[in-house]
Amino acid sequence: MKWIVAAIVAFVAVYTVVNVYYRKAGRAYRPYQDAQDRATTARLLSAGWQKVAINTRRPIEKPATSEAPAAIGRDFPGLGDLDAKFAEKPKLVATIDQVVAPGAVARGSDYAAYFTASLPDLKAQVGELTLFRKGNELVLIPSLETLPGKELKSRWNDSTYWLDFSTANLPPGRYEMRIVAKGPAAQWAFTVK
Fold first, then answer.
1. DSSP character for 64?
2. Smaller CB count within 10 Å for the chain: N or C?
3. pLDDT at residue 48 above 90?
4. 108 touches 167 (CB < 8 A)
5. The predicted structure's pLDDT at residue 7
6. What is the topology classification, in CATH, of domain 48-192?
7. How far is C-alpha 192 from the chain's CA centre?
8. To the nearest 10°, the Cα dihedral for 75, 76, 77, 79?
9. Residue 163, phi then psi, degrees to nearest 5
10. Are 37 and 29 a contacting pair, CB within 8 Å?
11. What stretches of the chain adopt beta strand conformation (E)?
C-alpha cells in the first residue's frame, strides 16, 4: 500500500512540474469559441469590414468638446447587414440613450465619443466594445456579458462609456457612425478634415 501512495505522490509532483513548465502562456484553447471567432472574422473580411482599434474607459462626467457637437439621430434596431456576418450573434444592449460626439475632427487626431446605454437587466454588463469600418461607415457594437454567480448584480440599468480611435488611417471626408442596440440605436455623421 505504501508503494501505491508513493507512486501517486510522485506522479502528482512530476505532473505539476511538467504542467507549470510547459504550459502555454495566455488563455486556454477554447475550440468552439475560437472556431466561431475565426468564422466571423473571415465573413467580415470577405464583406469588406475591418476592425478598428479603440480605447475605452468608464468616465465620471461628460467630456467637453472643443468642436461643435454632431447631430445625433435614431436608427433602426439590431446589427443591420452585419447580422449575417456573425457566426454567434453578440448580445446587444437594450438601447443607446445619449451620445456626445464632435461633428468634425482633424485627420491624425483621435475622435472621441461618449455614450450611455441601457442594459436589458441587472445580470449583465457591457464587456467589449468593437468598432468595424467599411468605407465611410463605422459601426460600434457594445457586447454584453453575464455577471458571474447568482447573487451578483449591476447597480444601475444603464452604463456610460467613453471611447476614442485614431483618424490617421481615415482619408479626409464625411463618415457615418452608428452604435447598435436591440432597441433604438444612435447614428450621426462627422467629418475628418
1. P
2. N
3. no
4. yes
5. 93
6. Immunoglobulin-like (2.60.40)
7. 23
8. -90
9. -140, 155
10. no
11. 50-52, 55-57, 73-75, 95-100, 104-105, 110-118, 124-134, 137-146, 158-166, 173-179, 185-192
Q: Which triple of cell numbers denotes residue 102?
A: 464632435
Nearest Cα to Cα of residue 88 among 96, 97, 79: 79
pLDDT of 11 higher than 90: yes
**How many CA atoms lie within 13 Å of 142's alpha carbon, on the beta-carbon side?**
30
> On the CB side of 151, how many CA atoms lie within 13 Å of its CA?
0
What digits encode the pLDDT tens for the residues 101-159? 888 888 888 888 888 888 877 777 777 888 888 888 888 888 887 777 776 666 666 77
d(CA 65, CA 53): 22
Is 0.70 topped by the overall pTM?
A: yes
CB within 8 Å of 141: residues ≥ 6 apart: 79, 82, 90, 92, 129, 130, 131, 132, 180
**DSSP assigned state of 79:** -
Average pLDDT of the residues in 53-77: 70
Pull the grid cell for residue 67. Answer: 468642436
Q: For residue 94, which amino acid is it?
A: A
Q: Please give the grid coordinates belonging to residue 91.
A: 448580445
Residues 6 or more apart whose Cβ sits within 8 Å of residue 128: 142, 143, 145
Confidence band for 23, pLDDT divided at 50, 70 and 90:
confident
Question: Domain residues of the chain, as ranges?
Answer: 48-192
